[in-house]
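Appendix B, record 7
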Amino acid sequence: MTFKPEETYIIHNIIDPRPVQRNGPERPLTVVDRLNCYAKWIITGTTTSSDCEQFIIQNAETTCYAHLKQQASQAVTESPNPLTCWKIKVVSRYMYRIYDPTTQLFWTSHSGSDEISLEPFSPGSDQWWAISSEDCI
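Structure tokens (predicted):
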């Protein structure tokens, strides 16, 4: 799957299914539950000098961020905040993996799917995030 900034992306906590969404490249993510500052995320798209697209997922309340690059094995980024500490790695064109060093859990997308659905391999985390590209009203 290819992340496109003109599309709508939803990031939501599986434990708390209230969605966070954005529409279009100019609008940041807005959170449904304003009390949950750790759910305020922004997705932006950039192009490097080598024309390799990368997308940044950033927590609006902190300096936490992660890069999603198109090329496999090049997107491994860790946020400094222990409350939202994770790594995102591009395993292949259709597979993304998230590692949370705090809980030591892994998430992975389903290979060959048009939708990125990240699920923990084991339960016990309060930071279960799912990232998907969907059409929203």
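Remarks on this record: The two ends are 22 Å apart (CA to CA). The first strand starts at residue 9 and ends at 13.
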